[in-house]
Specification:
By secondary structure, the chain is of the alpha+beta class. The chain is about 45% helix and about 15% strand. It is built from 21 helices and 14 strands. A six-stranded mixed beta sheet has the order 1-2-8-3-7-6, with helices on both faces. A six-stranded mixed beta sheet has the order 11-12-10-13-9-14, with helices on both faces. A two-stranded antiparallel sheet has the order 4-5. β1 and β2 form a beta hairpin. α5 crosses α10 and α11 crosses α18.
Length: about 550
């Protein structure tokens, strides 16, 4: 063993001895630390520990186990109460509803009159609509611009619209501007000026709008459907034309206004952060001078349903066909009306309807089929339909007719009908959250001469309808002898429509094709040839063309 090795060995042994001592010291320190008594808890710590201890059982906390494999059921229903309102009549005969809702400092006013497009003078269709637009074009001491500025400066608005048998003027503002709102409204109702220059501009706008309607297939098909069901000369089936609008004079506007805009022919609903006392004060101040008067006798003819046929409007180049299967229906006051309304919803209204399940989901013929029943005072019509691809026009019609036939022959499916009833009742009651909806229901009841009790019981009536009730309505109004088919589409679909009955063709102006008047040619033959030559580059270019 060398001297070097002898010198290294003591050093190595010393290293290992020191390492062993350090490890033993660390181990003893750990043991002492583990045996050291715990420090006494502080008051804060003691309080925290106490707060984490289990508390006494709270009876309000449910201990019912929940299975994630089971779908929860609906909550227990709550009784429905029709919202509160006040009703009274002003000395001038104005019928008033007040529905208070103080959630926002807003006042909404809705004036509804028994008037509308069906009351237009024959040959001057459009009078009611134009008169409504003219109310904002000058009233009292204000011009059209001054009316707009007065309302816009305070964030208020007033507008008018004409329905088939109703004429409506609506407005809204913050409550602090209610005096201004009622003041401008009173001017428009009682003191309109009907400026001649504004009438001229409106007639031009209406003519352009009417021309545009020819490019809207569903506008055309619904307009023709009204004529087919109500009768081609029935006021409820009339529509504005360029000729009828151009013939309207200022005297026609003033005559319509003085005949129908009377307080004893009107109902006003005031909704919002208001009381009946405040409403009476506003109406007395601003509409107290609105004088009642004699009302005209309205002689509305009975329906005159056209013969069974396919009423077809060819529209060259159309990539879709507009389809409506329609039939006459009872007045809203008729006891059969609720069942018919439910039938229309069951067949064609919304995601749970039969046409949605078939035309859209099963066959992908359309995106949004529809079904509705109108809400007229005297009589109505039911309509089911869709816009579909041209290539499936006849197939879609066959599906619609099949669903109607099933409802007539077998009645609606019980489960589907119950779901539709529950949905309709739920939507109706949810809508009652809106005070404006309540006002609308009350006013339409007044227009249609229905009692308030009928409005209150509407959901109860829907709930009571059975499969048999709906089937009886279908058998009475929608069997194959009552249905009429109206179609607008490319001429190529005409032959496919022949399987559904004889074809009666109409123009885009809804005139029978065989009796449509020929339009006079506005240019001579020489002018037509001259324009053709110009389009080709001129006579010199034509003469320069040679043929080998």
């Amino acid at each position: 063993m060398t001297s070097t090795t002898m010198k290294q060995r003591p050093t190595t042994m010393l290293f290992w001895a020191l390492l062993l001592g350090v490890m033993m010291l660390a181990t003893s320190t750990d043991v002492v630390a583990q045996k050291k008594p715990k420090a006494k808890p502080s008051k804060a710590t003691t309080s925290k520990q106490k707060s984490n201890k289990p508390e006494a059982k709270d009876d309000r906390v449910s201990t019912t186990s929940i299975s994630l494999d089971e779908r929860p059921g609906p909550l227990e229903g709550t009784p429905f109460t029709f919202p509160a309102f006040e009703e009274f009549t002003m000395p001038n005969g104005l019928h008033v509803y007040v529905i208070s809702n103080d959630e926002q400092p807003i006042v909404t006013v809705n004036l509804m009159l028994r008037a509308g497009e069906a009351y237009d003078p024959k040959g001057k269709e459009g009078t009611a609509s134009i008169m409504g637009d003219m109310l904002s074009k000058g009233a009292g001491s204000r011009s059209a611009v001054e009316i707009a500025l007065a309302l816009d400066n305070v964030g208020a608005s007033i507008g008018a619209s004409a329905g088939s048998e109703t004429f409506t003027i609506s407005g809204s503002s913050l409550k602090k501007h209610a005096e201004l709102l009622f003041g401008v409204l009173a001017d428009q109702i009682v003191r309109p000026t009907f400026p001649e220059d504004e009438l001229t501009k409106l007639k031009q706008q209406y003519a352009a709008s009417i021309a545009n309607e020819r490019s809207q297939p569903m506008e055309l098909v619904q307009a023709l459907a009204r004529k087919v069901v109500y009768g081609f000369d029935n006021p409820l089936a009339r529509r504005k034309t360029e000729a009828s609008v151009s013939g309207i004079q200022r005297a026609d506007i003033t005559a319509f206004h003085s005949t129908y805009l009377k307080p004893n022919n009107a109902s006003i609903a005031v909704v919002g952060d208001v009381t009946a006392k405040e409403v009476k004060k506003w109406l007395s101040t601003h509409l107290g001078a609105w004088a009642k008067g004699a009302l005209p006798t309205i002689d509305m003819p009975d329906m005159s349903v056209s013969p069974a046929a396919v009423y077809f409007i060819p529209r060259k180049g159309a990539v879709q066909s507009g389809i409506v299967v329609t039939a006459a229906a009872p007045a809203q006051r008729d006891e059969a009306w609720p069942a018919m309304d439910l039938l229309a919803e069951y067949l064609g209204s919304g995601f749970g309807s039969r046409l949605f399940a078939t035309l859209r989901e099963t066959y992908s013929y359309t995106y949004s089929p529809f079904g509705f029943l109108t809400q007229g005072k005297r009589y109505n019509r039911v309509a089911l339909g869709a816009e579909v691809r041209t290539s499936v026009t006849d197939s879609a019609i066959a599906v619609i007719l099949r669903e109607i036939k099933s409802a007539v022959s077998y009645g609606p499916d019980f489960d589907d009908l119950e779901r539709k009833k529950a949905f309709s009742i739920g939507q109706y009651r949810l809508a009652m959250e809106s005070a404006s909806t309540v006002a609308s229901l009350l006013q339409y009841a007044w227009i249609n001469e229905r009692s308030i009790d009928e409005v209150r019981r509407e959901t109860d009536v829907i709930a009571s309808l059975s499969v048999a009730d709906v089937q009886r309505a279908a058998q009475r109004y929608m069997d194959m002898f009552n249905l009429r088919l109206v179609v607008v589409g490319d001429p190529s679909v005409r032959s496919a429509l022949e399987q559904f009955g004889p074809i009666r063709e109409f123009t885009l102006d809804l005139q029978p094709a065989e009796t449509a008047k020929l339009e006079p040619v506005r240019e001579s033959l020489d002018n037509i040839v001259a324009r053709y030559v110009t389009a080709l580059g001129g006579q010199a270019n034509i003469d320069a063309v040679t043929s080998s």
